[in-house]
Write a structure and sequence with these properties.
GO molecular function, one term: DNA-directed RNA polymerase activity
InterPro entries: DNA-dir_Rpol_phage-type, DNA/RNA_pol_sf, RPOL_N
Helix content: 55-70%
EC number: 2.7.7.6
Organism: Castilleja foliolosa
Radius of gyration: 22 Å
Keywords: DNA-directed RNA polymerase, Nucleotidyltransferase, Signal, Transcription, Transferase
Order of helices and strands: HHHHH
Shape: flat
């Protein structure tokens, strides 16, 4: 199942529900893209079609470099640690210590949020790579969109 060519901005194939264009919440930027005449957007649609039809493969060597530390729950090379940073506790009633504690709490919470975001990102991507890896053995030039669509349909059929 290959994706249909893009003719308008609203029709596309996405695996993850995320924005195609990061606008940082700017309504003016979103409206500018929506108000462009379709004839001017044609080259953008053609580029997106080309990207969508490009065959991809998983580099098994690089994937194993990521999977091995992930399986051992190690914090190596930018992979997020699975344990949370412990929040500091208040030891004294001194105003300076309380102020320092608040800053340390903020830092710890921020670190935990960033780790959680990285963990979620990795947990979403690794299963996709596993699917691509197992199916690319059969056909090395398989389009990942085709693989994912077929797997999702198979899982839906199995669940009923």
């Amino acid at each position: 199942m290959t994706p249909q060519p893009l003719l308008i901005l609203r029709r596309c194939y996405l695996f993850l529900t995320s924005f195609l264009m990061r606008t940082h919440g700017s309504k003016r930027q979103q409206n500018a893209v929506k108000n462009v005449p379709p004839s001017q957007m044609q080259k953008v649609y053609e580029a997106l079609d080309t990207l969508g039809n490009t065959k991809r493969r998983v580099d098994r060597g690089i994937l194993s470099v990521v999977e091995d530390p992930w399986a051992k729950e190690g914090y190596i090379g930018g992979l997020a640690a699975r344990h949370a940073v412990s929040l500091p506790e208040l030891d004294s009633d001194d105003a300076k210590d309380i102020k320092k504690l608040k800053w340390n709490m903020r830092k710890a919470k921020k670190t935990n949020q960033e780790r959680h975001s990285l963990l979620c990102d990795i947990e979403l991507k690794l299963p996709v790579y596993d699917i691509m890896k197992s199916d690319s053995i059969k056909d090395p030039d398989t389009n990942p969109n085709d693989i994912l669509a077929n797997r999702l349909v198979d899982r839906l059929v199995e669940s009923f």
